[in-house]
């Protein structure tokens, strides 16, 4: 359900505050991974300003064509995928995160590239508004990237796991399926509750034709979650603390 306009403005403001807090930990010379989605777009915009004003010199690789286009337009120097390329820090959004920093990602269809960069990063920092932090994952439908040929069998297999799969439609032409940047289909799996994300991830990995799933487990080191006008740091096993308490990466 879409939130009413005032709530959606509030969430957008929270996203921007989290993005601004993340920018504090970007250091000159860093190689960055740039996430995808509305929260990551705030970060890229702020980073672009810092680069333009000469406050930061960084290089970056983006997790989607959309983020790459935004970064290019803002003059952020971009690196192509290459062997040996590692990222000091990747800043990305999430659709859901739990207190152990297990994530659901892929609402924008960028889960594959996002997981590739997250895995090649020393530090994955998630930025999010207050609606994203949940006690248990699964309310947000879990996205899968699926090879088109394999679709019918993937749908069968996900249904057997209790995930009520729905093939995602193209936003601009609802009669057509949405495609990832790789040209694959996206399937949203409505589990409602995922009490054991590790088990679900292991099961999804065995389905032929599933290129990637949107469970990000053990990948994020910290999250910046805005609650009202306060940005809080969330780390596994730690009570959330104000982001202003950290001078370095949390
Ligand atoms: O594929 C998209 C990504 O995983 C996004 O980071 C995620 O959907 C969150 O997007 P937003 O910041 O727009 O809520």
Automatic annotation (TrEMBL):
Question: What pathway annotation does it carry?
Answer: Carbohydrate degradation; pentose phosphate pathway; D-ribose 5-phosphate from D-ribulose 5-phosphate (non-oxidative stage): step 1/1
Name the UniProt key words of this record, in alphabetical order.
Isomerase
Subunit structure, interactors included: Homodimer.
Record gene name? rpiA
- Note the InterPro entries from the entry: NagB/RpiA_transferase-like (IPR037171), Ribose5P_isomerase_typA_subgr (IPR020672), Ribose5P_isomerase_type_A (IPR004788)
In Gene Ontology terms, what is a biological process of this protein?
Answer: pentose-phosphate shunt, non-oxidative branch
Task: Give the record's GO CC terms.
Answer: cytosol
Q: What family does the database annotate?
A: Belongs to the ribose 5-phosphate isomerase family.
Give the protein's biological function: Catalyzes the reversible conversion of ribose-5-phosphate to ribulose 5-phosphate.
What this protein is called in its record is Ribose-5-phosphate isomerase A
Q: Which HAMAP family match?
A: Rib_5P_isom_A
User: What Pfam families does the record tag this protein with?
Assistant: Rib_5-P_isom_A
Tell me the active site: 114 (proton acceptor)
